[in-house]
Specification:
The chain is mainly α. The protein has one domain. Helix content is about 60%, strand content about 5%. Strands 1-2 form a two-stranded antiparallel sheet. Strand 1 and strand 2 form a beta hairpin. Helix 1 crosses helix 4, helix 2 crosses helix 4 and helix 2 crosses helix 5. The chain is globular, with a radius of gyration of 15 Å.
Length: about 160
């Protein structure tokens, strides 16, 4: 069972993705959008989190185990659950929608490949090959620092 705070994030992602791209998304894509939303939010809000769940460094990238359990019955199909827009703080809503606009154009496999090149996932896996199974936790400070550096680099280039 996922927490109420994660449920709000998931619902915003599902609704925003359907509005922007006129399609639902897969569980893999949902996991990665949650990861990017959490990272950017932590980096831009002094480490505050959208939700408390931890990501694990699975073969297919960062995964929240409880979120996987909730939607695994969809397998590789798109998530078709009917959801309502939750009551959520404006800064959180804006952050999540920006992530969906920015990363939502990529499919789950492309997002997985991106996370496989990023320090938090690599560090948690500690040298394991991409195809090796693992469930090591991705340290939240690692996510926060990675996204702080990424955003700082992007702003210097922009």
């Amino acid at each position: 069972m996922i927490s109420e705070t994660l449920r709000k994030v998931v619902n915003v992602i599902l609704i925003s993705h359907r509005e922007i791209f006129q399609e639902s998304l897969s569980l893999m894509k949902l996991q990665k959008l949650c990861y990017y939303a959490q990272g950017v939010y932590m980096a831009t809000h002094n480490g505050a989190k959208l939700f408390e769940e931890y990501f694990e460094a699975w073969t297919f990238g960062p995964v929240i185990r409880s979120l996987y359990q909730e939607f695994k019955h969809y397998a590789w199909k798109t998530i078709e659950d009917e959801v309502e827009l939750p009551n959520i703080e404006e800064d959180k809503l804006d952050c999540i929608k920006t992530i969906v606009e920015t990363y939502g154009r990529y499919d789950g496999a492309a997002l997985m490949t991106m996370t496989h090149r990023e320090e938090p996932w690599l560090k948690a896996r500690n040298g394991l090959a991409e195809i090796e199974g693992a469930n090591e936790l991705i340290v939240k400070d690692s996510i926060k620092m990675f996204f702080e550096n990424k955003l700082a680099t992007n702003s210097q280039q922009g």
